[in-house]
């Protein structure tokens, strides 16, 4: 029996063709025809108002979004605390200060009440936040209407971290198209992958050209290499974009597969009262269910998320605690935080379950058996 992983990708079979085309044409560099084609595919997916810049990671996309919003040393940027560190690190790359905000219980994402408390308090201190980074965690859209109403009221731009939410939508509109910038990741564990890669979504060609300028070392318009601004090596490579062109053909199928995984878990846990499945609470929300996650709650210590994780590990099944909030991380704990322990509690009791696009019926049987044995069902 082979190990069941948390989030494996699935190939369409066309990846090799595009990569080979790149190799044969000697376009083995950053940028190139596959990169342009991949951007067009993504633009068609998001709709005509979305301009896509393909980059070498989701982290670089967040960094460029901050640069394009003019975030500089000494500025403050509000960031959802319950997220992956890649979301907060670029704030520090700019020498800015992260201001962390707690989650709410419904979507596990940035809490509107605490967001407004944070903004008001920063304003009182004479420090208007330069941007808000909100996350669609595990594919679940954040409270878009509430968050954007607050951001608009205080005129603070939103960076929408959609790294985990390609294919998710809110009221029929795709995640990644609501903010001033949307960012995506095509890392190996995401719903589609380019091995490593990312994308920045904006709504103007001017911003896209500016993003490409910074992503390719900020070369001025001159015959020699001349630079008036700091540049970065952030463009996606033509080889990686070839993988992406093959992968994008799997997107709809992967969303269906991951949503089916979620239905399997919903059924599995329906009679286990210690487990609460994380799911959409209204028809307005459509999650790609990138990862299915649960909260394990019991007065009996033996039924803890960590013991369940151990039971899975004994059967060679990979699970993972949910993200440790940024305000609890040694590297970030000195920065301001506004909240009331929602993300702490989720971190203490949550667990991410195997959710790969390739999960087979046999895998599901193995997972089901661990759960039933563990809870004595
Ligand atoms: C994966 C991820 C990123 C970073 O993407 P990379 O492509 O790995 O740099 C950022 N934010 C979140 C929420 C992620 O899950």
From TrEMBL:
GO terms for molecular function: transaminase activity. Pfam families: DegT_DnrJ_EryC1. The keyword Transferase applies. It comes from the Bacteria. SUPFAM superfamilies: PLP-dependent transferases (SSF53383). InterPro entries: DegT/StrS_aminotransferase, PyrdxlP-dep_Trfase, PyrdxlP-dep_Trfase_major, PyrdxlP-dep_Trfase_small. The keyword Repeat does not apply. Keywords: Aminotransferase, Pyridoxal phosphate, Transferase. Transmembrane segments: none annotated. Belongs to the DegT/DnrJ/EryC1 family. This is Aminotransferase class I/II-fold pyridoxal phosphate-dependent enzyme.
């Amino acid at each position: 029996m082979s190990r069941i992983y948390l989030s494996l990708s699935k190939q369409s079979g066309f990846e090799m063709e595009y990569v080979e085309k790149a190799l044969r044409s000697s376009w083995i560099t950053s940028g190139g025809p596959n990169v342009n084609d991949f951007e067009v595919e993504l633009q068609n997916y998001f709709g005509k108002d979305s301009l896509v810049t393909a980059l070498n990671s989701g982290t670089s996309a967040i960094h460029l979004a901050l640069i394009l919003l003019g975030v500089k040393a000494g500025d403050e940027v509000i960031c959802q605390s319950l997220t992956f560190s890649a979301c907060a690190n670029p704030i520090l790359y700019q020498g800015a200060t992260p201001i962390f905000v707690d989650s709410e219980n419904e979507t596990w994402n940035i809490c509107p009440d605490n967001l407004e408390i944070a903004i008001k308090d920063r304003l009182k201190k004479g420090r208007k936040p330069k941007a808000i980074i909100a996350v669609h965690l595990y594919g679940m859209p954040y409270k878009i209407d509430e968050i954007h109403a607050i951001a608009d009221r205080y005129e603070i731009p939103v960076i929408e971290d959609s790294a985990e939410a390609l294919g998710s939508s809110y009221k029929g509109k795709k995640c990644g198209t609501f903010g001033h910038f949307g960012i995506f990741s095509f890392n190996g564990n995401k719903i589609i992958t380019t091995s490593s890669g990312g994308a920045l979504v904006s709504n103007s060609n001017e911003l896209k050209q500016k993003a490409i300028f910074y992503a390719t070392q900020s070369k001025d318009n001159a015959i020699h290499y001349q630079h008036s601004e700091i540049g970065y090596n952030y463009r996606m490579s033509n080889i990686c974009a070839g993988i992406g062109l093959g992968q994008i053909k799997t997107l709809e199928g992967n969303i269906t597969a991951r949503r089916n995984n979620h239905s399997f878990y919903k059924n599995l846990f329906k009679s286990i009262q210690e487990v609460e499945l994380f799911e959409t609470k209204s028809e307005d929300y459509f999650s790609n269910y990138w990862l299915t996650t649960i909260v394990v709650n019991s007065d009996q210590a033996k039924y803890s998320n960590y013991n369940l994780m151990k039971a899975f590990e004994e059967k060679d099944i990979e699970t993972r605690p949910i993200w440790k909030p940024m305000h609890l991380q040694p590297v970030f704990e000195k920065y301001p935080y506004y909240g009331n322990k929602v993300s702490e509690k989720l971190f203490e009791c949550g667990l991410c379950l195997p959710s790969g696009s390739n999960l087979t019926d046999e895998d599901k049987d193995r997972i089901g058996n661990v759960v039933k044995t563990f809870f004595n069902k």
